[in-house]
Write a structure and sequence with these properties.
Length: about 325
């Protein structure tokens, strides 16, 4: 018998064993934005392992794709915008918001040559934002523009990734952008743009939260809680030691060791990310005030027709919030 024939059964067993190991991993989804920094820092800093979890960290390009993976059972938890959970839950999906992540800090930056001085000045211009229906897009339309006396059709809004938004500013394909960190900071370093607005200063909503399915919470509660413990440790590092945290996560946002800037030459990527971390507020806890803001966001979604309940009644965010971990840890 040929050696290759003998190897086939061995390789088959190895493949099955490899799949079993992969299946045992606790899968966490994230987006490559500063809002998800605690998930990345917990992975790179070994916090998941410290709490006894073997984690596979999986990147997604949008919150919509991430929430689909949670609903479909391909992910155990994910750090993403609250509106995704609300939209799917309103259609019958069994989803739970089990912890906080980051408060809503999103800046509007504009090209200096446009002459735009404030949000009202965006009228007639082109703005790059996130995809329609995302948490950022909902707040942009329902809070930022509304408070400035504008409607969404008063300007042209393009739904793109934060990375594409920065490239569009550099290439002068848009006049402004509504950006997460670190993209807002990167844009101001590599393009002739300036910041005219920061929603975190006026309406610090709970932008990113930790979401899981009701089935996962029921079957893997211990593992879900361990993941929240690990992310809380990572948040502690981000808040208290941003310089140390930046060394763990900088490579996720800036591929080269340095960033070539317009006015400051080559800046180490760790320095850029450190400053971005400092500008944010991370919290594993969802306060009563934040839950009220989540309800306000859901109300905005229902008013504009992007969220529809099956029975036509108002959507109650309390139905998808499970703070058992928070209460158990006395946070």
């Amino acid at each position: 018998m040929k050696l290759s024939h003998l190897l086939i059964p061995v390789l088959a067993v190895f493949a099955i064993a490899t799949q079993a190991v992969a299946a045992d991993k606790f899968k966490i989804g994230y987006l490559r934005v500063m809002d998800d920094a605690q998930a990345i820092a917990a992975y790179e800093g070994g916090f998941y392992k410290k709490h006894g979890l073997d984690v596979e960290l999986i990147e997604f390009k949008s919150g919509t794709d991430l929430i689909k993976a949670i609903v479909g059972g391909q992910l155990d938890t994910g750090v993403l915008g609250f509106t995704n959970a609300a939209s799917w839950a309103s259609k019958g999906a069994d989803l739970k918001v089990v912890g906080g992540a980051q408060h809503g800090y999103h800046a509007i930056v504009v090209r200096e040559d446009t002459g735009i001085k404030n949000v009202a000045g965006l009228k007639g211009h082109t703005l790059a934002s996130q995809k329609e229906g995302s948490t950022a897009d909902t707040v942009l339309r329902g809070v930022v523009l509304k408070n400035a006396g504008l409607k969404a059709d008063d300007l042209t809004i393009l739904g793109v990734s934060p990375q594409v938004a920065v490239q569009s500013l550099v290439g002068k394909r848009v006049d402004a952008a509504f950006l997460f960190e670190p993209q807002a900071r990167i844009a101001q370093l590599i393009a002739p743009v300036k910041q005219i607005y920061e929603i975190g200063e006026v309406w610090p909503f709970p932008c990113m939260v930790v979401i899981t399915s009701g089935d996962t919470l029921k079957k893997k509660k211990d593992a879900v809680w361990k993941s929240l413990d690990a992310q809380r440790d990572a948040i502690d590092l981000l808040q208290k030691k941003p310089e140390e945290a930046s060394k763990l996560i900088a490579g996720y946002f800036i591929s080269e060791p340095t960033l070539k800037t317009l006015k400051h030459g080559d800046v180490p990527r760790e320095e850029v990310i450190r400053d971005a971390i400092k500008s944010q507020t991370f919290s594993a806890v969802l306060t009563a005030k934040e839950q009220a803001l989540m309800q306000e966001i859901a109300d905005i979604m229902q008013a504009d027709g992007s969220l529809k309940t099956r029975d036509g009644n108002p959507f109650d965010v309390k139905n998808i919030i499970d703070l058992s971990w928070q209460k158990e840890r006395k946070l």
